Amino acid sequence: MPAHSEHLRYLRLLARRYPTVAAAASEIIRIEAVLRLPKGTEHFMSDLHGEHEAFVHILNSASGVIHEKIDFVLGEEVPAAERAELATLIYYPTQKLPELKARQTDLPGWYRTTLLRLIELCRFVSSKHTRAHVRAGLPESCAYILDELLHAHFEDHDKDLYYGQIIDSIVRHDRADAYITRLCEVIKWLAVDRLHIVGDLFDRGPRPDRILDSLMAHHQVDIQWGNHDVVWMGAAAGSPLCILTVLKTTLAYNNIDTLEGGYGISLRRLERFAQRAYGTSDVTRWLPHTDARNATAGDLTATARMHKAVTVLMLKLESQVIGRNPDFHMEDRDWLHRIDWEKGTVRCGDRVYELLDRDFPTVSPEDPAALTAEEQRVVDGLVQAFAESERLQRHVQFLYAHGALYKICNGNLLYHGAVPMTETGDFAVHTYEGHPWSGKALFDYCDRRARQGYFAPAGSAARQAGQDFLWYLWCGAQSPLFGRSAMTTFERLYIADPATHAEVKDPYYRLIDKPETADRILAAFGLHGEGCHIVNGHVPVRAIEGESPVKGGGRLIIIDGGFCRAYHQKTGIAGYTLVYNSRGLILRTHQPFESVEKAIHEDEDIASKSEYIYVAPRRIQVRDTDEGVRKRELVRDLEALVRAYEAGLIPQGLTV
Fold it and tell me: How far is 233 from 319, CA to CA, in rounded Å?
């Protein structure tokens, strides 16, 4: 054994936890047993876009995994309707339990049957976990009894008698509801080891804040940021432009409840300003995309005025950010300096177009990017409101702590948008701060700049530069999170010609049909081998037109199938999810989810179909995973510690 001083110092630290040969050997044996267990299930979702109800249902059902396990454990002898009821109970125990109880004529008998079925199911889903892992997920109030029920050895007990006695005691002491609820939660916890969210929690959907609450309660989750996420991160960091960009989307879809109800951010000052500045303006073009039956004409008009006010403020701040960031190469997006104010026209590309709306009462043609004093007060108030929203700050801190631009996990590369490429298939090179970046290095650089925008000292040039970069990640042509030529918001609002509205996709989206492109990207991130895949989101797959989510010869899977209701007609489905278990990768295709209420009261699950994308040549074990690599390294260190004990280099019983 090498007697290097640094190595010995590390082994002495390890000896504090394993102070004897017996302790170290016992841990080696335990780890080697864990390494031979089947790999845990990973669940991938992307592009949730604030659709909280659909997200929670998919999360609760583990994309159909739980229903499949119910069918396997209970079999055909239990009617399909009862299996569906049990699935709904597991998904929504607190809501479903009162309804089911109210129907029973023999409530104690129903309790016994339900508890027995839940115990059998829980035993099944816990079978590939260690007893210690299962115990860690048991609620303290009933952990001992649940542990006994889940791990009884029936060679020593009559199964029916043993279960019957315990369950009768649970029912007799009025604890059945608590045990049913706890078992349902444990089943969901054990069914999925890890949740991956491949970007875009935010956008036009009604409650992204509730999605984040659910994620914060999850036992193991990671997030790969999408462009809608980073602009909210920039808003929470204090970027005025990111705040106005967030407000633009919120008002365009009349989704004010996210801000006011979810984050306690009042828009009253903005509303008063919009009334004063645009009270006599025609705001027809600014009416939100919403069902008019759900709002009064006056409310919609007030929202339209705010929508216009925010858009003009956004254009002013875009001009300022573009001006101080020549690295962005976005001079052609500085619209206020491309308008001929006398003629009411704008230059877009090589052509000049008439503006559909020439009403700019707060813009000075001599200095169009300058804010008026009143506009500055509105912006300052919004910055303060976003900074003081404790819930928003908690959510964004969670996004930073559990998120990144990309993740490599168990041989899979996860990212939201695109790896910018040239038409010839090379990684596109872009220069920031005097250095060229491309491929993986570009992702790493963008990740660092995104963190700089939130964590650099307040008021510093570095913090402002990081916040500007967060906005660039939202809409920049070379942003790995955007992947298009331009965000054509201005063109859609001010120019009639639909040709100007096109957002040309990065060559990446054409080239990923080729297996060599996927292989090249994987290699750039250090991944090789048949079992490695890219999991991608961002661009909805138009399944209705026959497009496949599987690209690159099966090496790349796009799982944005349109969770957001606004995309259902374009995609023909309501989203994809991916399940990676010990057998391989399974793609789930989901149909639209109507409502939680219908799911609870009518036991209506999301209709889904499944297909294997990759079948492992043998069952994947824990030893084959990233965690397995770490555990094997610990085994090597423990073996070195044992040798050090046996050689007398470290005394046994060392505790300090």
Answer: 21
Q: What mean pLDDT is predicted for residues 527-535? A: 93
**Contact 562/568 with Cβ under 8 angstroms?**
yes
Cα 286–chain centre separation: 30
Q: What is the dihedral of CA 455, 460, 462, 468, to 10 degrees?
A: 90
User: Residue 139, class by beta-carbon neighbours within 10 Å (0-12 exposed, 13-18 middle, 19+ buried)?
Assistant: middle
The model carries a pTM of 0.91
Q: In whole angstroms, give the CA distance from residue 596 to residue 477.
A: 39
Reading the block at residue 122, the tokens are 């829980």
The mean pLDDT value for 624-636 works out to 96
Radius of gyration of the chain (CA): 28
The lowest-confidence range among 271-280, 286-295, 455-464, 498-507 is 286-295
Distance in angstroms (rounded) separating the CA atoms of residues 584 and 217: 27
- Pairing mode, strands 584-590 and 608-615: antiparallel
Amino acid sitting at position 339: I
Neighbours of 648 (CB within 10 A): 8
Surface-to-core class of residue 297, CB atoms within 10 Å of its CB (0-12 exposed, 13-18 middle, 19+ buried): exposed
Q: How far apart are CA 637 and CA 616, in angstroms?
A: 30
Please classify residue 153 by burial: count the beta carbons closer than 10 Å to its beta carbon, then call 0-12 exposed, 13-18 middle and 19+ buried.
exposed
CB 562 within 8 A of CB 571: yes
SS3 556: strand
Over residues 355-409, the pLDDT tens digits come to: 999 999 999 999 999 999 999 999 999 999 999 999 999 999 999 999 999 999 9
Return the bridge partners of 387, or none: none
Strand partners, 128: none
Cα–Cα distances in Å, from 533 out to 187, 219, 554?
Answer: 28, 24, 8
